[in-house]
Structure formats: structure tokens, C-alpha cells
Design a protein that fits this description.
Blueprint (H helix, E strand, L loop, with lengths): L1 H18 L4 H11 L8 H14 L2 H9 L5 H13 L4 H9 L3 H11 L1 H11 L12 E7 L3 H8 L4 E9 L15 E8 L6 H10 L13 E5 L2 H17 L7 E4 L4 E2 L7 H4 L2 H6 L6 H5 L1 H9 L5 H12 L3 H14 L4
Parallel strand pairs: 4-5
Antiparallel strand pairs: 1-3, 1-4, 2-3, 2-6
Helix pairs in contact: 1-2, 1-5, 1-8, 3-7, 5-6, 6-7, 9-15, 10-11, 16-17
């Protein structure tokens, strides 16, 4: 994904300045609008890319490239994915994926700086821990707005991935603005060898007010997936009822279909840091929901887990030094000192 993002930026400059023949000032303005969280390239940088094209290609090559169709984002992603799989074969991949001659591919490769970028990324970028392939079990809880539980549980040892959505009701295909009789909930995939369901229940009870009388959308629910979870949930409910003088509204129900919330709700706290998402090669969508790394960082960016835990596992997560320092600063800033 990192190469794809770099490729998008450089091809955007190429399409705007070289093919559409816009001025440097217009190109820089358009770039800022297209990539608001990126540094705008200088006039010198843009002109250097343009002159590379004209210095490395013959007149016929230049005409061929000028006539070539503007690359779409879909095609850029295809080329970027191919380059990520084999970053040292830039010429062959560009020629194969775009249908241009190998000579023109050589011009484009120099124009985009892809040989240097691809080899640098493949050589220096750690392997990000997006996927963990272990047997998991599911746990589903509702405990108010689902943004906070997503951060809370995502950073716990043994939690593999999380997603937020709607559960507990009968309305088909609920959405945030038309939730029907459902409740905001979080679904957790956890490794039972690392964390027990009983431990997850303890976190559930300790991090929300089960006596709060609120609307159905934000009420307290434990949605069990098997009889063992049901027995444990009902047992802890009885224990909590003994501790509290106020009526506990929490219901224990069998888990039915879980409906994912819209993409902008997933890893909501992490999505407030677009430059961090970009460094991780992530964007709103299925990968953000399934990524183990995204679940961890969604908690760390608001201080959950604490700096000690972050320092202990940062090398395992595969973050580069700059990204790790950025996240650590946030953990330190928001960690609860108590």
C-alpha cells in the first residue's frame, strides 16, 4: 500500500503537469486539494520530474507518452500491487500493466522514481502485523456508544480483531441513521489461549455503567455465542446485582446476526489520524476492520494499554521508527495515570 500511495501522488503530478499541461502553480494547488494531508511538492520538484521525461526519451517516445491515456486510480492500484509483490521488476511490470512499450516504461520509471522508491520500501519497511492466523472465539457486548469499547478491547492482550455494528434487534440491515430496534455493539475475535471470556466480562462490567437508563441504541447487553458464555455471563450478572443498589439494566441474550456499522465508525479513533492510516497502508474498508494492527493502534492513540505495554510490543507490530514515535507520543499524552 505504501508504494501505491506514492505512485498515486507521482502519477497525479504526471497527469496534471505533463499530460494536461497545467502550470506549476495550478499543479501544486490541485495536488493540495487531492492530497490534503501531504506536503505539496515544490515547483523545483515538479519541474525536475518534467525534465526527466524529456531528457530520457526520444521525440517519438515523448509523443507516445503524451498521447497515452491518463492513468486511473484503479490502474494505479493494480500497478502498485504488482510492484509491491515484485519491487525490482519496475520496467517489466509497468510495460505489462499499462500496455506501453518497454522504452516508454523506462521513461515512466525514471519519471516516477519507482526503482528507488520500490527498493527502499521493500528493504527498509518492517512487516506490519495486520493479520494473525490463530483459532479464535467471538464475544459480543453492547455498552453505550461503540467507539470507546472498540478502543478498549482492541488493545487487550489476546484480542485479535474487532468490529463495531448493530445487534440484539430484529430490524433487517440497520444503519446508523435507521438503527431500528438494534443496539450499538462490538464484536471481538479473541484467542482463548491468551485471554479468557471471563476476563472480557470483567472488562465489560468495569468500563461502563450497567445501571444507566438510556435508549435501546445505547443500552447494556451481553450477547453469548455458546452455553458456556451464557453461564458465565449470567453468573457475573448475579454478582453485579449483589454489589449494586440500583437496578441493572443489562440483558443476557443469545447472539444473532451482527450487522457491521458504516466504515467511518470502524476504528473511529484511529481514523482521526489520517497520516497514521496512510503510513500503515490502510483506508476505511474491510482491511481496516480485519487488521490486528489497526485494532491495537485504535486503542493506543487514546491511551488505552499504556506506554509500558506499547513499548513491550512495538517491535512485534512492525512499525517504523517515525510511526512508532508518533503513536508513543499519543499514548503518553492520553494514558490514564491512575
Amino acid at each position: 500500500m505504501v508504494i501505491r500511495y506514492l505512485l498515486r501522488e507521482r502519477v497525479y503530478i504526471y497527469n496534471t503537469y505533463v499530460k494536461s499541461k497545467k502550470s506549476c502553480a495550478t499543479t501544486r494547488r490541485k495536488f493540495k486539494h487531492k492530497f490534503p494531508d501531504r506536503s505539496v511538492p515544490s515547483r523545483k520538484t515538479i519541474e525536475r520530474l518534467f525534465h526527466r521525461l524529456h531528457e530520457t526519451g526520444s521525440l517519438n517516445d515523448r509523443k507516445r507518452i503524451q498521447k497515452r491515456r491518463v492513468l486511473t486510480e484503479e490502474k494505479i492500484d493494480e500497478i502498485g500491487a504488482a510492484l509491491e509483490r515484485n519491487p525490482h521488476q519496475c520496467l517489466r511490470i509497468l510495460a505489462q500493466e499499462t500496455g506501453i512499450s518497454k522504452a516508454s516504461a523506462g521513461v515512466a520509471t525514471k519519471l516516477l522514481g519507482l526503482k528507488r522508491t520500490a527498493s527502499s520500501v521493500s528493504r527498509n519497511m518492517p512487516s506490519l502485523l495486520h493479520d494473525i492466523n490463530v483459532p479464535t472465539k467471538k464475544a459480543t457486548f453492547a455498552m453505550g456508544c461503540f467507539w470507546a469499547p472498540d478502543s478498549l478491547f482492541g488493545v487487550q492482550k489476546g484480542v485479535i480483531r474487532t468490529r463495531v455494528g448493530f445487534a440484539g434487534g430484529t430490524t433487517e440491515n440497520p444503519r446508523y441513521r435507521s438503527i431500528g430496534d438494534h443496539t450499538e455493539a462490538i464484536e471481538i475475535d479473541y484467542d482463548p489461549n491468551e485471554i479468557s471470556y471471563d476476563q472480557l466480562l470483567t472488562m465489560f462490567w468495569n468500563h461502563h455503567d450497567p445501571t444507566a437508563r438510556v435508549s435501546k441504541q445505547y443500552t447494556s447487553l451481553i450477547l453469548y455465542h455458546d452455553q458456556e458464555q451464557k453461564a458465565l455471563a449470567e453468573g457475573t450478572l448475579k454478582e453485579e446485582e449483589k454489589k449494586k443498589s440500583s437496578y441493572i439494566v443489562t440483558k443476557v441474550m443469545q447472539a444473532q446476526e451482527f450487522y457491521d456499522a458504516e466504515d467511518y465508525h470502524q476504528k473511529y479513533r484511529l481514523q482521526q489520524h489520517p497520516s497514521l492510516l496512510k503510513a500503515l497502508g490502510l483506508e476505511a474498508g474491510p482491511k481496516l476492520k480485519s487488521s490486528h494492527l489497526a485494532a491495537r493502534l485504535n486503542g493506543y492513540v487514546v491511551g488505552f494499554g499504556g506506554v509500558g505495554q506499547f513499548d513491550a510490543e512495538v517491535s512485534r507490530l512492525g512499525l517504523d521508527d517515525k510511526t512508532a514515535a508518533y503513536v508513543r507520543k499519543l499514548v503518553v499524552k492520553y494514558e490514564d495515570p491512575i
